[in-house]
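Quick entry, no commentary yet.
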Amino acid sequence: MDLHCQMILEEYQEALPVLEEMKTKVLQMLREALERNNIIVTAIEARVKTENSLAGKLALKGQKYATLADITDILGARIVTFYTDDVDRIAAITEQLFEIDWENSVDKRKLHQLDSFGYNSLHYICRLPGYEYRFELQLRTTLQHAWAAINHDTGYKSGVEIPREYMRQMNRLAGMLEMVDDEFSRIRTEINNYRRRVQHLVQNGRLDDVSLDGDTFRSYLQAKPLDALNKRIAAINQAEIMETPLIRYLRVFKAFGCNTLGDVDRLIHQYEDDAYRLARHQLGNTDLDIISSAVGIQNICIVYILRTGGGKIGLNRLFDTLNGHNTQNEQLAELTYEQARNLPFMKQ
């Protein structure tokens, strides 16, 4: 190695604390930005080039660089995303966070080479305000990242040229993975559009047009259809309402034969008064000052079962569905039946 390259290495050794400080700041800024924008990624990482790696680079093309600041990847960062469209979202965020060296940045996704899938990442050369050195940020999807690693392992580490037959097979697989990458993004977009349509239908009260499933039931629950009933029940003892997830009642309503949100909504409205009477009978002689937000929906289910002739067996099945099968559910079903036995709706 000539004197010029040795001087760059000495500069690197002196700059190492600054480069490590840059790495920490870049990671922090990226993580905070992703969190603010609700973007979940597979990985976010950074590294300062090791001295041995830098020495190898300088040995090959050291005369290309006047100083250490000319080496654009002395610090490298990478974000690996789940979806191709998230690459563009993070790119927009990056452009706001850092000064971009557009002349040296490259979007390899636009090269469209047959064997380029694993290397289709977006490479930004960035500058962190207040620092002399630039750094490289790579953005790619999980499948691109995995393919690049696999292709590197099979194509380069052996040092043997790969026969055309195997290269053709590898390129076919790369094409398939590229289609899968695009399909994941397309499906996510369609699911998000579906959820927005469901929310619109729920907000406009068109519940009979919405099939009952996990996503739609969550949207329905976000409208707080049981709040009024729970507040009536809480007022019995002036109790505080403790929020509890209600998604597990989806299986119960499915078992009741509900196929749309309209079916669920009608069932709730039909039985909410009897559910309140049952709660008053349950809580009237107690001093409970905290109740679960599930009390209303559970009592509606209890009333439905009893009014449709399900009896103790139906109650036991309900508690098995909600709590998992155990011997206590039979005792709970017996107690619940006794609590409801003398209420007016049991005699109708």
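second:
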Amino acid sequence: MNNKSLIDVFNRTAIKYADNISVIDNGTSYTFYELKLASDKFAAGLIQRGIKKSDRIALYCINSVEFTIAYMGIVKAGAAVVPINLLQKASEILYVMKNSGVSGLIYYSAFQSNVDVILSDLHATKLTVCISTSAAKSNEWESLFENNGMFPPIPIDVENDLVAILYTSGTTGKPKGAMLTHQNLVSNTASVYQAMKWCVGDVIILVLPMFHAFAATVGMLTPLTHGCCFVPIAKFEPDNLLNTIEKTNGTVFLGVPSMYNVLLNTKDDKTDRFSSINLCVSGGASMPVDVMDRFEKKFGVPIYEGDGPTECSPVTCVNPVGGIRKIGTVGLPVPNVEMKILDDHGVEMPIGEVGEIAVRGDNVMKGYWQLPEATEESFFKDWFLTGDLGNEDEDGYFSILDRKKDMVIVNGMNVYPRIIEEVLYRLESVLEAAVIGQLDKLHGEIPVAYIVLQEGFKADSADIRSWCRQHLGSYEVPRKVVFMDALPKNGAGKIVKRVLNKQGEIERGVQ
């Protein structure tokens, strides 16, 4: 166990690499020393305004240096960050803020209309600060830095004191707040750094939203605690992304599968803008093998697929950089993380057999905020139950077949939507695909495929089903195919199947 807090590790790194570039935001560079000083001043400003240890502060901000300074400043003040999903409606944000009992809100000016709605129903905030480029509003933000950055040391209990409460997307009911401690994040950033084999001088391109666990830990906190540079990009636009990579000589790109799929449409004469990238990392959702194969051929850069739930800080495993990549797997457990496959009774499954992936290590969350029963249900002894169905091979590589709740049972046979999706992605006309289960009186459940076609291609249900019959068992062939202009995605670009489930219920007249 590491007894250092995230603050200790960041400050030590910032002093060691004081003159190195830490963040490049819209062409402006910030050294580690500048970032440390800004976060010290921000923390002092928060304390002067009444923020105390263990308070919670909502951070509602785009990918930016301001997000970074606010995040580290909140933590240095002894408070916990509650990152807000930028795609959520005001009512959803209000739930998160009320549930976590925030004492303050730091927000980006573009979200003012949502904030007005939220604050009309939330009266208990000590502090509301707008990050703005306009002179009229910027005083609120700038005034927090009007101090010398000195404040009394705040004792940190690394095992119990929180860095952040990250709300998981509620597949059933309301979202739950995963409590991540200093120990969790110090452990996981160290594991990521070792597994990725990064070094000082690497430049991580961060277009994944920083409110999300993958982006926050891998894209922001790991560089901050290990002397690397990162480049926050506020919006995923392929041309702007490629230009930014070229200008900053980015060496590492972090993405989710849908981003790699979009980048496949890059014109061949622009792919050289990606040439400084040495490796890509994919997480957040299963990477279709066909998308990975086509991307690597087009850009000449390997993608290392990994995985991990928010509750695990989040990284649990990744294909080893410099080692053997097993395409279609999520790789080996990262250093200091244990994984195994359990059956429904908590018994470890033999090699190759399918069961639930369980995780143990200092990276595993303290629990869900104010939900002791849900916390208890998510553990078997000291193993966190991820809800993912998968298996382990003879070399220790893990594969994820599907979410436990997404498995479809057709006539008593287990059907894994991911296997059907892999087949669909191999069809030239298919841009995106998602498969869910639908209740059926005759078969128990049936698989339903939601398809987005490539521009300029045509296909109908018969074409899709015919292709599937060539490559799947008869019970796995989608009984129904729904064509859409776009699949619903969350803020991290991950396809949200619960929205498709809801749409299917509406179509069938289920209230």
